[in-house]
Amino acid sequence: MDKIYKALAEIVGEEFVSNRKEELYIYSRDSGLSEPRFPDYVVMPRTVEEVQKIIQLANKEKIHVVPAGASLSLSGLTIPQKGGIVIDMRRMDRILELNRKGRYVVLEAGVTQGKLQAFLEENAPDLCHSLPEAPPSATVVGNLVIHGQGNLTQAYGFNSSMISGLEVVLPNGEICRIGSCSLSPYWFSIEPLPYLAGLFLGWFGTTGVITKVGLRLYPKKKLRDVELFVLEDPKLVSEVIYRVTHTEMAEDITTVAQPYPLMFQGTIMIGIYLTGDTEEELEFKRRLIWSSLSDLIKAKEGGFMALTPDMKVGLLEKPMSSLTRSADILKGGGFVYCGAIIPIEKFPEALKKLFEIAERNGVTFAHTGRVIGRGHCMMFAFAYPFNRADLESMEKAKRALFDSYVATLEIGGVPWKPGAEEQKLILERMDKNSVELIKRIRELLDPNKIMNPGNWEVEL
Amino acid sequence: MSMELHRCFRCGWCKLPSDFVDYNCPSYAKFRFESFSPGGRLWLIRAWLNGELTWSENFAKILFSCVACKNCAEQCKMRFKDEIVDWITSAKSSAIEKGLAPPKVRDFLENIAKHGNPWGLPRAQRASWLDLNKFEGEGDLLYIGCECAYEERGQKMAKNVIELFKVAGLSFGTLGNEEECDGNEAYMLGELGLFQELASKNTQKFKELGVKKVITISPHAFNAMKKYPDRDFEVLHFTQLLLELIQKGKLKLSELDLTVTYHDPCFLGRHNGIYSEPRKILKSIPGLKLVEMKRNKENSFCCGGGSGNFVFDLLSGSESPARLRVREALNTGAEILAVACPICKAMFEDAVKDEGSDLEVKDIAEILLSSTKML
Lengths: 460, 375
Ligand SMILES: Cc1cc2nc3c(=O)[nH]c(=O)nc-3n(C[C@H](O)[C@H](O)[C@H](O)COP(=O)(O)OP(=O)(O)OC[C@H]3O[C@@H](n4cnc5c(N)ncnc54)[C@H](O)[C@@H]3O)c2cc1C
Ligand code: SF4
Ligand code: SF4
Known about the structure:
The structure holds 2 protein chains of 2 kinds. Chain A is 33% helix and 23% strand. Chain A has 15 helices and 19 strands. Chain A has helices at residues 3-12, 21-26, 48-61, 113-123, 140-145, 153-156, 237-247, 279-292, 294-298, 309-316, 321-325, 347-361, 391-410, 420-429, 432-445; strands at 17-18, 41-43, 65-68, 85-88, 95-99, 104-108, 127-128, 163-169, 175-178, 209-216, 218-219, 223-231, 252-257, 268-276, 302-305, 333-342, 366-372, 377-387, 414-416. Chain A is globular. Chain B is an alpha/beta fold. In chain B, strands 2-1-3-4 form a 4-stranded parallel sheet. The interface between A and B is large, with 44 and 35 residues. The structure holds flavin-adenine dinucleotide (FAD) and iron/sulfur cluster (2 copies). The site of one iron/sulfur cluster (SF4) has 14 residues of chain B, from helix 1, helix 2, helix 4 and helix 5.
């Protein structure tokens, strides 16, 4: 028997390791448009010690390792660029601790967004975490690793800034704790120690395998509502966002622009989510937000749209299944998006680029966006559905996607969760000393170059 | 079928129940490789049909460990959701047609075709344990079904149902050894030819005997008969009839001091939308406390026995769906796990033994019967 297979089976049990072609096929691709690349093994550990042994084995055998959650980032981030072992983390799915008063939870790395959501619903209904619109089968840690955003991002920043502790298996197999949990039994804060968490976030599994995370929770109000502010002039979007964030009354602020249905063509919709423990609180917030925009409304620059109950249900769903459903727009089973992190005043430029790219490539498009922090920046998605059964449609969407990454960089933005190819675009343009630092950190942490090669790979 | 398979986004909503509390696709919950999730399975079927992947033992396991529980169809967010299980069934059908099905699956179907039951047991044994008048054109027909006819635990369940019907003064009979398999598993395994043959044999026989109403014990039979093409008889699951009898005052119930949790069988629940009747029966028993498992009704977690797996059991082991479900039942604090399907009953009785648990698995008829006997 293959000696690596045998060693992996000894670590996790034969049931949870595979080198069979069906598993290799599925783990060689994700739901986006990245080129499939086959792993040699897929393994599913249950404990941190098992992860540690896998990493030690990988070092001994000089075989690559790629940590994976639900592989739903859509940019091929869990596709093993250079083969090796894919570690599917989802058997590590225990919620280990809830500290209600301290408002944090401690989770294993395979816990899904859905499981955490359900757990809080049952055990701490007045608390919530920042939930992305990703399918509930996505993992919490996968989202943190890519600096994801959720419904609390407008108030508290990127989801990754809500981390209160980490446990990581380093590329050399050492288990390392970060934050208060490194010197106390409590997982309440990453700060004020040297900020080591940054070594693992945004690195796409190239610097270690996260096995546990402490995550901050926030007050969950009893009521939640949404208002849609509709306008036509993209130049006003940053003004609207500035004013609404100034009120500090919104939970979440999102943007949508799409060619279909036709009644929405040419408009931009800004979703303003409100929460409150009472109707009175909601109404108070609503009034402040309305009054912050009243002169725009009077000048007929924009206005609030009357929402039907059905529309409200769809918009208030957590997570919103309509985003997943956009993969079926062309009855084709897929969409890809470039999430550009941009300053809010760049919205009009980004939208113009989106229209140009869609037209140039002959593709259907959609834009959704989310405000990050109090208008500190936003995620602007250039999204393209495609048809998995139609090669031409896939090629076109791929080209449009690539153009969107280039456009993001041109307007001064930063592409979010870039795939391996797009990472190269970023590294080419990045300050040389920053690139050199990335390289040195990787060499230092991972002398055998086992961790997810092909990602953030610097060839200077 | 292959024209539409590409529409699966592999987004994974279908793995979960509506409140996301745990994995709800039994075969994914057991195996945990993405290849065993509904989406993974659909992508692999597509790859197989496109010639990207060739048949293998592992692929056979992936395909036939789908128990047709329909959670995926319930939870998928796409417009094609209602077709997902049919797609998987069609793939099973293609495999069987090409002679690729695993030997256990082949034997299962051959036994049904030759002997009228999946174990290949003699037809003469079907009703040898049954002490009941044959249906002579009067009253209702009680359809016993293979799992109740040949499996000891199923026989016990059938006897409970029969006794209750007698207590209620119902006029009914059975087909005895002449009963034929209902064909549900043949249907779910994509053996449509065999299903149609069985459907037509049964419909013909019912017609000859003047059957107007069939009461099934197994939800699987109930589901199959609802699909019979030329059905001119009414079909009811026994829980529907029992509730009617209780509501008409035909069954007098006395107090039972029990805490019970009820498991929705997939072919009664998700496949046919019957959730309230079994619960109403249990709630009508004075003193009985019904507690729900986290996953119930549309979100029920399958016992793992569907689509032939109660015989060829590709999902066995310490994390089998039945064992996971028994743990979930125990978490409710219930002393009894109530079932309405002989397959669930057998699966859970085995699981309880394997778990070394003292949870009792009882069919609804048995619980009801003890309530009538207390009087
Ligand atoms: C319809 C749809 C809507 C979406 N909406 C949002 C949204 O609103 N906000 C948002 O932020 N995202 C969104 N996403 C993107 C993405 O699905 C989510 O961010 C998701 O949470 C990622 O989790 P995952 O488990 O799929 O991660 P994966 O894709 O499996 O992993 C992401 C990265 O993390 C690495 N990784 C995973 N686990 C570990 C670990 N334990 N240790 C080290 N590295 C690890 C992987 O190698 C990879 O580089 C959306 C996606 C879809 C399909
Ligand atoms: S079947 Fe539906 S829910 Fe499941 S992965 Fe496919 S598209 Fe998603
Ligand atoms: S029918 Fe049930 S077992 Fe089959 S794929 Fe769907 S959820 Fe899984």
